[in-house]
Amino acid sequence: MIINIPTDSDFSIHNIPFGIFSSASRGKRVGVAVGDHILDLVAVAELGVFDFDAKVLNQDTLNDFIALGKSTTAKVRTDIQAWLQSDQSPLAKNENLFVLQSEATMHLPVSIGDYTDFYSSIEHATNVGKMFRDPENALLPNWRHIPVGYHGRASSIIVSGHDIHRPKGQTMPKGADQPVFGPSQRLDFELETAFIIGKESVLGEHVTTDKAAEYIFGMVLFNDWSARDIQKWEYVPLGPFLGKNFASSISPWIVTMEALEPFRVAGPEQTPAVLPYLAHEGASNYDIALEVSLTPEQGEEEVICRSNFKYMYWSMYQQLAHHTVNGCNVKIGDMLGSGTISGKDEKSYGSMLEISWAGSKPIKLKDGTERSFINDHDTVTMRGYAERDGIRVGFGHVQTKVLAAHS
Ligand code: CA
């Protein structure tokens, strides 16, 4: 190995995720994460080792690189894996190729044209249904037939490390007869992943479940910030709006589907059987351990949720097949969120709404304070990784601090 990779690193030789970074001496450009370092692909291209126009690497986003197609991007990944492991490789003896991650700034990896969010965890949808509708009939009649989703807002998607201010909005407090305006009292996170589209479809075309994998470049961790009190008052009848679109945070490294391939697992059984256009043969879920931690302003970081992407009822292939079945087209860089990923037991619930059961069961933190929702100056961190047979492929983290509402 021409560079040391810590054995517990998310960014092992098996991963090679793509991102956009800059440093004191390097403008925004494409890099890959390797252990604690970033391999600068613009500098690598100067060695003349790539057979495509290196201009696509010297960009503010990955969109043009991704547009080269998987035949190219997957080869770049396997070439880098081989080069990192050979003392004879073009990368050996050239220290200018690597930048320490601690000395770099990460940026949004793609220009996101459109963002869609699903609602595909049966445990999450059941919990929400129990709290707000009918404990006996928690799932709505369409839920097992349609990967329910809505169109979100792309402009407010931010990369890990950006602070957000508590959103303000209109709410209807319990027992009140008039709505009020002010800072949200029920600010929440949603533990999600998202996938990035890597191939365009044309208007009118249906991307079938069998073809969906060709259209998915890779995945990121996704915190879909939600203001529950604003959401509750506004969502009837058209669904989420200002309770959702003030910010959504993603991790900076896009982990490719090639890197995640060894971690495929079967999804839950779907009953009743889905309509034929949503059917898919083979393992279409991924075993990715996920966790959320909370850090109070002067306190210690503590994990408040451990979940797994493999619990998802609807797969990414089904989500994409459903999204395009009416002819809606997707573009490179579009982002599709999984929906909150909750598991069966209470410790795997992927939002404060569920963890505190709508505020009725606050959790106690190590510093003695309680939380039903997220306080000002709290930092929320999500991590995710897949591990099997000594192979580890991780996402790093997405971390966001909540500041007080603008006055
Ligand atoms: Ca969501």
What's the structural blueprint in terms of helices and strands?
Layout: E1 18-23, E2 26-34, E3 37-40, H1 41-45, H2 63-66, H3 70-84, E4 98-100, E5 104-107, E6 115-118, H4 122-132, E7 149-151, E8 157-159, E9 164-165, E10 168-171, E11 180-183, E12 187-188, E13 191-197, E14 216-223, E15 226-227, H5 228-234, E16 248-250, E17 255-256, H6 257-260, E18 264-265, E19 285-286, E20 289-295, E21 302-308, H7 316-324, E22 335-337, H8 352-355, E23 363-364, E24 370-371, E25 379-388, E26 391-403
Parallel strand pairs: 6-22, 8-16, 9-26
Antiparallel strand pairs: 1-2, 1-5, 2-3, 3-4, 6-7, 10-11, 12-15, 13-14, 13-22, 14-16, 14-17, 18-19, 20-21, 20-25, 23-24, 25-26
The protein binds calcium ion (CA).
What do you see in this structure?
- The mean pLDDT is 97.
- This protein has 407 residues and is α+β, with helices and mostly antiparallel strands.
- A hairpin with a 2-residue loop joins strand 1 (18-23) and strand 2.
- It folds into two domains: 18-107, Roll (SH3 type barrels), CATH 2.30.30.230; 115-403, Fumarylacetoacetate hydrolase, domain 2.
- The strands form seven sheets. Strands 6, 7, 8, 13, 14, 16, 17 and 22 form an eight-stranded mixed beta sheet that branches.
- The longest helix is centred in the N-terminal third of the chain and has 15 residues, at 70-84.
- It is globular.
- It starts with 17 loop residues before the first strand and ends with a strand.
- The chain has helices at residues 41-45, 63-66, 70-84, 122-132, 228-234, 257-260, 316-324, 352-355, and strands at 18-23, 26-34, 37-40, 98-100, 104-107, 115-118, 149-151, 157-159, 164-165, 168-171, 180-183, 187-188, 191-197, 216-223, 226-227, 248-250, 255-256, 264-265, 285-286, 289-295, 302-308, 335-337, 363-364, 370-371, 379-388, 391-403.
- It contains eight helices and 26 strands.
- Helices cover 14% and strands 29% of the residues.
- Residues 117, 190, 192, 224, 337, 339-340 line the site of calcium ion.
- Calcium ion binds next to loops.
